[in-house]
Specification:
Length: 205
């Protein structure tokens, strides 16, 4: 555990040294959970090393590319490659099954709302890649979800300052409402989709 702690500490030093690019690369490699990297980015804003909106921009870029890598592995490597290498990006087979079930049930709209739902958000890019979802649609929906997530955790990290390590406690009052909003948006999406499908069938008759 001490060895792992040393590696993580070195990663934070590396992120601090690279500034904006450190946040971006820290999110892309996904060795540390995105919430922690973004909170540390907020601490760097608090310290005056970088500015808030620059951190949000590079946090968004890093977050989107992290999901694009998973999408590309899924799209071009398929399920066999995921089963073989998924463990290296902290994705278990059960995560893949769960995310695929949600994607098949709710469609491409889950790419946005699913980003805010625990378990699903870490693996939702996988079924999108397996289904060969449009690159443009995937990137747009992912970006729209990553932006508010980045703003929230960078802002909370900024507020915590030197206590940024307590991000879980600080974020919990915000995360639950976000999950509820995501579920509501998902329901609205499903209702609209059902109405449009019925209208389309009615016109076909």
């Amino acid at each position: 555990m001490g060895f792992i702690s040393d590696i993580v500490s070195q990663l934070f030093v590396w992120i601090q040294g690279l500034g904006y690019f450190g946040i971006m690369f820290g999110l892309m490699v996904e060795v540390i959970p995105s919430e922690i990297v973004l909170a540390y980015g907020g601490f760097l804003v608090y310290s005056g090393d970088i500015n808030f909106w620059g951190a949000v921009l590079f946090g968004t870029i890093g977050g989107v590319f992290a999901q694009l890598f998973i999408y590309w592995i899924s799209r071009y490597g398929g399920r066999p490659m995921l089963n073989k290498f998924g463990k290296y990006i902290l994705i278990k087979e059960s995560h893949i099954d769960h995310a695929e079930k949600w994607f098949n049930k709710y469609g491409t709209g889950i790419i946005f709302s699913g980003r805010f739902i625990p378990v699903v958000r870490h693996a939702i890019s996988i079924p999108a890649g397996l289904a060969k979802m449009s690159h443009l649609r995937f990137i747009v929906l992912t970006t729209l979800a990553v932006i508010p997530w980045s703003i929230l955790f960078i802002f909370l990290g900024y507020q915590l300052g030197g206590q940024w390590q307590h991000i879980d406690e600080k974020a919990s009052p915000y995360v639950v409402p976000i999950i509820l909003i995501a579920v509501i948006l998902l329901i609205v999406y499903l209702v609209v989709k059902a109405i449009l499908t019925r209208r389309k069938k009615a016109r076909a008759q």
